[in-house]
Design the sequence.
């Protein structure tokens, strides 16, 4: 996928009329995954997509 429509901040933009957001999640104790936000789950976890794969984990909190 080409993400040429990202705005200057690099974390969100539009593609095919849909808003896309990059999110970073923690999977396990030491592994982080950054991908396109798919959805939030009722248990507080988030699903992100990287290519054809989807990962479930806790959001990494922003520092600012």
Sequence:
């Amino acid at each position: 996928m080409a993400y040429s429509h990202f705005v200057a901040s690099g974390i969100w933009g539009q593609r095919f009329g849909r808003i896309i957001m990059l999110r970073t999640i923690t999977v396990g104790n030491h592994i982080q995954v950054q991908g396109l936000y798919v959805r939030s789950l009722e248990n507080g976890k988030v699903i992100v997509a990287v290519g054809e794969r989807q990962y479930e984990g806790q959001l990494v909190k922003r520092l600012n």
